[in-house]
Design brief:
452 residues, Beta-galactosidase, Chain A, domain 5, 13-stranded antiparallel beta sheet, 8 helices, 18 strands, 35% strand, globular
Length: 452
């Protein structure tokens, strides 16, 4: 019997306001790390017999707190809501059940939160949700665009309800989501017709249970919740405890001084002079038949360096790929020497799968779990045999590639483990700018099918 059926059949008994609640550990996990640790300590004392009478009145956070705590969960949730509206619009024009079935599959709640059992931290769960959203959207687009193949769409506004402006660019082959208030960062790179999402790389962040790693081990004594037990499955998990300064995304830029080596940038031993992250960009979209061009302008300044950046990303209907062009201008009164770095974070689901590899380094193939620097490149590609695609990267100028796997430390049913979240690719271009001078850099991304 549903709630509505019961309400129709049962007599009125007065008012009831249902609280937003769940089991008590959920209230701990949804809190920020510091408050979660304090709340967890209170629960531990209660289980040990201290002040047990207050437990019924204790409540931590609520489920929607996960959408505040994790940008990735919030963006997926708002993406789902947009697709839901699109499915409804298509149904009003006669669409069948395919879109709604995929939408319902994408609403499986596990991927929208994180506690002890992975959830949002498991990239295959995120991929499954995005795949179903893309399938639902693609089925709806066939109806809404009457089967056309040369259409484009653009939308702007606060698309993920975070208070900033986003820009959504769509073609039959590509879906791209940019964040104008965050330097034009690109968080979704999806291929609707393939049902593949490449952009969902989880940000490394502090979790309350990270503080418990030093206490890992122990036995269950009946007074400790199973959720409190920690076992280190892999001692190297400590290597994944880094905290990222901003959300993992693509189309991010940084400028380093000329004395900073690529190796220092790779190891994060050196800090950039300026970054695009967190800066508000002025966005302008131009459209022509089957084509979209997004222009973003923003200042890059710091430590006596005055730079401005114009970056454009162009897409065309019928093409699985795009071109990013950067114009870096020296607005200062002194020459500027250094390295312009374009960062891209992409998810290929596994770091050491035999069917996922780098190609084009001049030294054979390399696993996606490897890290290093490779100079004097103009082309390379990443092969994903599991999803049967290859992503090629090409530039007209020499660049140095800095690559490393993005890994997080997470709880699971059996202990603390290291989880592959994606790869970080930084393309480094040497820059020498006289006062008032500009330099241009371009990166072309192309997706092709491969057998395996």
């Amino acid at each position: 019997m549903t709630l509505g059926e019961y309400a129709d059949a049962a007599p009125l008994r007065g008012k009831a306001y249902l609280p937003s609640c769940s089991y008590i550990e959920m209230g701990e996990w949804t809190l920020p790390p510091g408050r979660a640790a304090r709340f967890g300590g209170l629960l531990h004392d209660i289980r040990a017999g201290k002040d047990g009478e207050v437990k019924p009145f204790l409540q931590g956070g609520t489920f929607r707190g996960f959408l505040r705590k994790y940008e990735e969960a919030n963006q997926l949730h708002k993406r789902m809501l947009r697709v839901s509206r699109r499915v409804r619009d298509a149904e009003e024009k006669g669409a069948g059940p395919e879109g709604r079935e995929h939408l319902f599959r994408a609403q499986c709640n596990d991927v929208y939160w994180h506690g002890i059992f992975g959830g949002l931290y498991l990239n295959h769960l995120r991929e499954a949700a995005y795949t179903n959203l893309l399938r639902a959207e693609e089925a709806s687009d066939r109806i809404l665009h009457a089967g056309g193949n040369d259409w484009t769409e653009c939308a702007s506004g606060d698309l993920d309800a975070d208070g900033g402006e986003e820009i959504l660019v769509k073609t039959p082959e590509l879906t791209l989501l940019f964040h104008g208030h965050d330097g034009g960062a690109l968080t979704e790179v999806s291929l609707p017709r393939r049902g593949i999402a490449l952009g969902h790389v989880l940000t490394r962040r502090e979790e309350a249970y990270h503080r418990k790693f030093k206490e890992a081990g122990g036995a269950f004594d009946g007074r400790t919740s199973i959720h409190d037990l920690l076992v280190l499955k892999d001692p190297s998990v400590a290597e994944a405890l880094g905290v990222d300064p901003w959300q993992r995304a693509s189309f991010r830029e940084a400028f380093y001084g000329e004395e900073v080596s690529p190796e220092a940038i790779l190891s994060e031993a050196a800090s950039p002079i300026c970054v695009s992250a967190g800066r508000k960009a002025t966005a302008r979209v131009t459209r022509s038949t089957g084509k979209v061009r997004l222009l973003l302008e923003l200042p890059l300044a710091g430590e006596g360096t005055a730079l401005s950046l114009e970056k454009t990303l162009s897409v065309a209907a019928g093409a699985e790929g795009f071109e990013a062009v950067f114009q870096l201008r020296n607005d200062g009164e002194a020459p500027v020497r250094g390295s312009f770095v374009s960062e891209w974070n992409l998810n290929f689901l596994s770091g050491n799968g035999p069917d996922r590899r780098y190609q084009g380094f001049g030294m054979g193939e390399a696993d996606l779990s490897t890290r290093g620097t490779t100079a004097a490149l103009r082309w390379f590609r990443i092969v994903d045999g599991w999803r049967k695609i290859a992503v090629s990267v090409e530039s007209e100028r020499d660049f140095t590639l800095l690559r490393y796997p993005v890994e997080t430390a997470s709880l699971s049913e059996t202990g603390v483990e290291k989880i592959h979240q994606g790869v970080c690719l930084r393309l480094l271009f040497r820059a020498l700018l006289s006062p008032g001078e500009s330099e241009y850099y371009s990166i072309r991304w192309t997706i092709n099918s491969v057998a395996s």
